[in-house]
Design goal:
The protein is α+β, with helices and mostly antiparallel strands. A hairpin with a 2-residue loop joins strand 16 and strand 17. The chain contains 14 helices and 17 strands. It has helices spanning about 1-20, 20-25, 150-190, 195-205, 225-245, 255-270, 280-305, 310-335, 345-430, 435-455, 465-480, 500-520, 560-570, 600-610; strands spanning about 35, 35-40, 45-50, 55, 60-70, 75-85, 85-90, 95-100, 110-120, 125-135, 140-145, 145-150, 485-490, 525-530, 540-545, 575-580, 580-590. The protein starts with a helix and ends with a helix. Helices cover about 55% and strands about 15% of the residues. The strands form three sheets. Strands 1, 4, 6, 9, 11 and 12 form a six-stranded antiparallel beta sheet that branches. A six-stranded antiparallel beta sheet has the order 3-2-5-10-7-8, with no helix packed on it. The chain has a five-stranded mixed beta sheet with strand order 13-14-15-17-16. The protein folds into three domains: about 20-165, Jelly Rolls (Sandwich), CATH 2.60.120; about 190-340, no CATH class; about 460-610, 2-Layer Sandwich (Heat Shock Protein 90). Helix 3 (about 150-190) packs across helix 9 (about 345-430).
Length: about 600
């Protein structure tokens, strides 16, 4: 209740403020000498007339005599608060001023003040006569208000106030409307698909045509453009109805859009062919423009009352004042009113300001929605990030546990396959009292344990170091057996993705190949060479000079199966073949080893299928 009452009071205050030009007049100098009557000079006699007065447009220049009394000659000024069209002033028969010589622009749509210093050389004690020639040269009637005589202190403040209101304020309004039009054009340029901004830019541009009257003094040709200006105002009025419909969320009919072009063009054509007199062209365009603005007002009132449309309520008062100002100005042109000032110049920007407020309101609403959407999306993104981090951490934990389990299993398997076998051999040899063999088996078990332990510390870039360590251990073992070892890994390409399990499997394969050469090949020399294999892979060849490997063995031993199983986990394959001087084992590896463990059975089958 209190909110509604507050809005009602606010609207009443706004209505009082915006209607002030209709009932409030600017102050006049009370202390100065007022001249409220004059004599119109005819062909032979003078007729007394009261001020203010109006001279109809199109009539001949009128001459008026204004008289005042001075007790003594002093520096005084002659001040006319409001006049329109041309005024020439003479003091005691000597011309002293002409409104056409003013430095400020007056124009068709302007009532202006004038303040003239009266030369003391032309003043005299007693009666002084001021002769005024008043002329209307356009569509609007000439106007002459009451005149005043006084000093600068009495007349100056009133003159400056009227200069601001009647001239400077108009230029400020024009500049503001021009800037607003540029802003709307920029928005339209970035949103060409939104017809609201295109029609709004058209309304703003055509609404500036009446301001061309302000430049009539430097550009007298503007008078000839008055019919076109009135046609532009009609287009602006029809476009206003379209803008109002778009603001209310309605789609304007196509015939209304075409009417904005065809109706003014049709009226102009009827005038050019002589069906419509030139003097009726401006009133006809003005009446139609008022009718379309009134239609916009009725539509707004219907939308505001039926749908409680906030933006429609915002436009009601400014559009109502535009209609009142348009009717006032039309009545002034038709000489039904004597008002010297056209109000449309002041009231039309109210509607444009309301449009700007609506655009800013929509912009604020859009920004609030955008901020809300950003906040919602940011919160959702944060939730997703937290969930992803949680899932990632869980996956890391599972991966870590899986890797630990696999490494533990591999370590157990390697210790079981290597160290446990040696220990079993030691037990068996001790039971048979084979003392000399026990020491050798114990050393083999120790070397095997060192191999497993050393592989646990291998990182991705330390495979060459692991191979070098294996070479040192093999050289010592083979030297005791009188077997020579030639080892070179200079041409072996870099292998990436190496894990301790990968390294141990590769070392076991090489170790098994050399062990088989010692046990079964009766070799005296073993060569181990690394190089680049086919398809850009890595190749390690272990060759001995002993007994050749049988081409079709009846069965495959556990050592060979272990070699195939291990090379399968590396994503490679192994090839064992007999050569002229003995047996050659080729270990083919990719340059990047698998990241995850492969299915052992599938990996073994793949490796076996690749063997000859």
């Amino acid at each position: 209740m209190m909110r509604s009452l507050g809005f009602a009071v606010l609207w009443v205050i706004i209505a009082i403020v915006v209607t002030m030009p209709l009932w409030l007049t600017l102050p006049v100098p009370e202390d100065a000498l007022a001249i409220s009557s004059a004599s119109r000079i005819g062909d032979s006699i003078e007729h007394p007339v009261a001020l203010p007065l109006t001279v109809r447009s199109g009539s001949a220049p009128a001459h008026y005599r204004l008289s005042f009394q001075l007790d003594q000659v002093t520096s005084v000024y002659f001040y006319i608060p409001l006049l329109r069209e041309r005024v020439a002033v003479s003091l005691n028969g000597v011309p002293i001023a002409d409104s056409e010589h003013r430095t400020a622009m007056a124009g068709l749509a302007s009532g202006i003040p004038i303040m003239i210093h009266l030369p003391t050389t032309l003043l005299q004690e007693g009666r002084n006569d001021i002769l005024i020639q008043l002329e209307s040269r356009g569509l609007t009637p000439a106007y002459l208000a009451m005149a005043y005589v006084g000093d600068a202190a009495e007349l100056g403040p009133h003159y400056r106030l009227r200069i601001f209101v009647l001239e400077h304020l108009k230029m400020m309004v024009l500049a503001g409307q021009f800037l607003m039009m540029l802003a709307v054009l920029v928005v339209w340029f970035h949103r060409p698909g939104d017809s609201l901004f295109s029609w709004m830019a058209l309304v703003l541009g055509l609404s500036m045509l009446p301001y061309l009257g302000l430049v009539r003094d430097p550009l007298p040709q503007v008078v000839a453009l008055v019919p076109f200006i009135s046609s532009g105002s009609l287009v602006a009025a029809i476009s206003t109805l379209i803008v109002v419909m778009l603001l209310a969320g309605r789609s304007p009919p196509k015939w209304l859009k075409w009417m904005a072009l065809l109706l003014p063009a049709g009226i102009m054509a009827t005038s050019l062919v002589g069906f419509l007199p030139d003097r009726l062209l401006v009133p006809a365009n003005s009446l139609l423009a008022i009718a379309f603005i009134l239609a916009s007002l009725v539509f707004l009132a219907w939308v505001a009352g039926r749908e409680r449309h906030a933006e429609a309520w915002l436009l009601l008062l400014p559009l109502s004042m535009v209609i009142v100002a348009a009717i006032h100005d039309l009545a002034t042109v038709l000489s039904f009113l004597d008002g010297p000032v056209f109000l449309s110049v002041y009231y039309r920007p109210l509607f444009l300001i309301a449009l700007a407020m609506i655009l800013m309101r929509r912009l604020g609403t859009s920004l609030n929605l955008l901020d809300g959407a950003n906040a919602y999306l940011t919160e959702r993104l944060a939730d997703q990030e937290r969930q992803l981090n949680r899932l990632h951490q869980e996956e890391r934990n599972r991966s870590t546990a899986r890797v630990r389990s696999e490494e533990r299993q591999n370590l157990t398997s390697n210790l079981h396959d290597g160290l446990s076998g040696h220990l079993v051999s030691i037990i068996a040899q001790s039971e048979r009292e084979q003392v000399s063999a026990i020491g050798m088996t114990a050393r083999e078990a120790l070397e095997d344990l060192r191999l497993v332990i050393h592989s646990l510390d291998i990182s991705e870039n330390e495979l060459p170091l692991a191979l070098a360590g294996l070479r040192e251990r093999l050289e010592r073992q083979l030297r005791r057996l009188g077997i020579g070892l030639q080892w070179t890994m200079v041409r072996l390409p870099d292998i990436y993705g190496v894990t301790p399990t990968h390294a141990l499997n590769l070392l076991r394969i090489i170790q098994e190949a050399i062990t088989n050469a010692v046990k079964h090949g009766q070799t005296r020399e073993i060569r181990v060479q690394g190089s680049e294999g086919t398809n850009g892979g890595a190749l390690i060849v272990v060759q001995n000079t002993g007994i050749p490997f049988p081409q079709n063995p009846n069965r495959r031993g556990m050592g060979l199966d272990s070699m195939h199983r291990r090379v399968a986990t590396l994503g490679g394959r192994i090839r064992i073949e007999a050569v002229r001087e003995g047996t050659q084992v080729e270990i083919h590896l990719p340059t990047r080893l698998p990241d995850v463990a492969r299915d052992p059975e599938q990996a073994l089958n793949d490796a076996l299928s690749a063997c000859p």
